[in-house]
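go over whats below:
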Amino acid sequence: MMLMMMMMMVMMMMMMMLIRMMMMMMMMMMMMMMMMMRMMMMMMMIMMMRMMMMMMMMISKNANMEHF
């Protein structure tokens, strides 16, 4: 009986450890995903800014040409 109890306890402990590890892995994955999303957002913002700048330059050039 005692042996069975001990085995059960060990199994429970192992299960708990596994669950904890899984949770940690999930958290890490979530963090990585968040970081990737943030990086992607930053890149998109930079690209948009660059595009806007290019458009502004083109418009200003056109306006200058018209003036002349």
Observations:
- The CA atoms of residues 30 and 65 lie 52 Å apart.
